[in-house]
Structure formats: C-alpha cells, structure tokens
Inverse folding.
C-alpha cells in the first residue's frame, strides 16, 4: 500500500468513525462515542506521522534559491522594473479568486509568489527577503493578540497596539 493510499484509507475511516460517533451520541451511548473518537484520534496521529515523516516525497525547500529562480523567470516573462501597480492589481484579482474558492491552494500560492515578486522588484535581495520573512514571524509571535474567539470572522484580527 502506498503512503498516499494509506492516508486516503485512513481519511475514509475517519468519516466512518465520526458518523458512528454522532449516531452513538444521538443514542446517548457516550462510551461508544468515546471509543470511536479515540479510534479517530489514532488515525489522525497516524496520518500526521505519515505526512511529517516526508514519505510523500515533499521536496526540501531553499527559499533563497527559489527566489533567484523566480526572479530569472519573472524578468524573462514580465520584464524588468518595479511594476508595483501591476503586481498589486494581479494580487487583487487573485484575492477575488480565493474568496470564491478558499480551499484552492494554488490561488493562495499565486498571492505568495506575487508578493515575493513585488519584493525583489523593489530591489530587495533574496537573502534579505528570507531573513525578513523569518524575522516578521518572530515579531508576530511576540505580539499580544486579542482572543480570536471574540473576533468577527469576516474581519482582520490585528495585534494589540502599545501592548
């Protein structure tokens, strides 16, 4: 059995466990529901192990090398220059596609690629982009954020200023 087949099989079983657990709760059989939920947890852990062990062949990623590759492609395909307005226009179009189909990972990746394209077109070196990406994550992790459970899901959650 391939890793992908194993994952798909376990995902299919999760549907069965969850459906059976819902039936058990409806019938007030909480012991059966608990056992089914524990079975589901084991399958979730097994799926996580399969994915994180890189048995799917997910390539290791060098962001700096990718940015050099992206820059060469973009210069050839779209020409030189800052192109901020064009990049932002394209990002806005991609965001509309994401709103229409938020599960489409390739639309999210289009936004990421466009943002990276816009950064190097402003003269920022790939090494600095990679450094700033990591640094910005660290900054965000150190900030104070409001309780997401009380936030409007249709609005941005912004960090607490001055905290």
């Amino acid at each position: 059995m391939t890793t992908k087949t194993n994952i798909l099989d376990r995902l299919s079983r999760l549907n069965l466990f969850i459906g059976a657990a819902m039936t058990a709760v409806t019938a007030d059989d909480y012991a059966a529901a608990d056992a089914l939920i524990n079975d589901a947890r084991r399958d979730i852990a097994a799926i996580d192990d399969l994915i994180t062990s890189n048995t799917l062949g997910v390539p290791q990623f060098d962001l700096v090398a990718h940015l050099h590759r992206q820059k060469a492609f973009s210069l050839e395909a779209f020409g030189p220059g800052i192109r901020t307005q064009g990049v932002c226009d394209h990002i806005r179009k991609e965001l509309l596609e994401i709103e229409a189909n938020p599960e489409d990972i390739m639309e999210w990746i289009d936004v990421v690629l466009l943002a990276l394209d816009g950064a190097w077109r402003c003269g920022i070196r790939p090494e600095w982009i990679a450094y700033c990406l990591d640094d910005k994550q660290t900054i965000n992790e150190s900030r104070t954020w409001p309780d997401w459970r009380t936030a409007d899901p249709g609005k941005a959650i912004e960090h607490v200023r001055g905290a």
The first helix runs from residue 3 to 26. The chain has six helices and no strands.
